[in-house]
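User: I'm putting together notes for a lab meeting next week and I want to include a structural view of one of the chains we've been expressing. I don't have a solved structure, so I'd like a prediction I can at least talk through. The sequence is below, exactly as it appears in our construct file.
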Amino acid sequence: MSSNQNNSGSQNKRMRSVRWRLAAEQVWKKIVRSLGLDITILFVILVTWLLALENAATGTVDLIGNDHDFTVDTELYNVAEDTFVEKIETTKYVLSNAETGKVILETHPFKHFPLFFAIFVGVFVSQIVIHWCSFPVESGNIKKILEPLDEMVAKAEELAKFDFTEDKYHVIEDKLNSLEPDEETLISLGDEDLAGIERAMNALIKRIRDNNRQQARFVNDASHELRTPIAVIQGYANMLARWGREDEKVLDESITAIQNESENMKHLVEQLLFLARGDAGRTAINKTRVDLNALMNEVYEESLMIDENHIYKFAPSSESIYVNADEGLIKQAVRILVDNAAKYTKEKDEILLGVGVSDGNTAFLRVQDSGIGMKEADVEHMFERFYRADEARSFNGTGLGLSIAKWIVDKHEGHFEILSREELGTRIGIYLPRA
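Assistant: Thanks for the context. Below is the predicted structure for the 435-residue chain, given as structure tokens.
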């Protein structure tokens, strides 16, 4: 046990050492940035001062008509009469006319250098002190960032403390074997050393049961939806076998019904396969730069050609709007919204399509109808698979279209905004990040 404690102590020391080193790096970065900023400010002050001198001497600042030079000025000083000459070199700033060569201004900008340098050093030293005083704050920020790693280390230390004897393995095995798939009970090992494993296993069991329930509901709903068209096809096939050979009316009615139901069943199976592939991660998403105005215009023109029973209007954006998306999938999601709008809207009523920007970083595709609308309670469940509101059950549909649209939009890191009122209509917007 003492070895575990020593390991724990060494782990904590290593994590502290990492935090301090990262915090020190952040402080040094601040110091370097401050040094660069101070040098830049000093240079700007020097240039501003020289330009101010030029303005005072000439009444203007002429960067083209005047020459601005830094030169080395050599001055000879007689220290002892005719016996020794001392040579002194100083830097001076000379402003002269570019055409005439006449000297307009001559000054020694660095004669006050010691004073400026002292001020510069004082300010920089103060900044160093301030930045190092912020070390605890930086250390705290690094600690927050590394908190998940600290938790992982703590979990590893917790596991390292466990003394797994053969009896403890048997306890875990017996509890797992005693679980029933349909039970809601969780594992209780009754051992403090196994408390961490107990929590992790119970969390895993909950996820497994949730997934199983979701899959079971999906299978039950799918079988329920498939049962109706299969029953219709079987009923008409039996009617054909009995009277269809002699009665042409029965023959025509049966053929039409079988064709319609088989088409509905094919559509349902395709939707089920799309969702199944999506859940399994087998649907490829190929993102490119997509022009939303062009995409919605295609949907608009297709709607005019396919559906002559409604009035379609399209309001494009005045600016070009691009998103990074799979064009085919986004078009499929919009097509689902348009199909729903046409389904629940009376003939000769309007369906409005639009594209726009809600803020600087978000674009939207919008479909608005004047159909039956939805209750607020139905809006909350409208994206659930196979969910259909009571008012919508009299219309043909599978209840999977909006689920597919939501899957597509979620994969593009987007979201929906829905506004619906009964007997007034529904407006659904797909909001996506702009490229």
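A couple of points you could mention at the meeting. The domain at 288-433 is CATH 3.30.565.10 (Heat Shock Protein 90). The chain has eleven helices and ten strands.

User: Perfect, that's what I needed.
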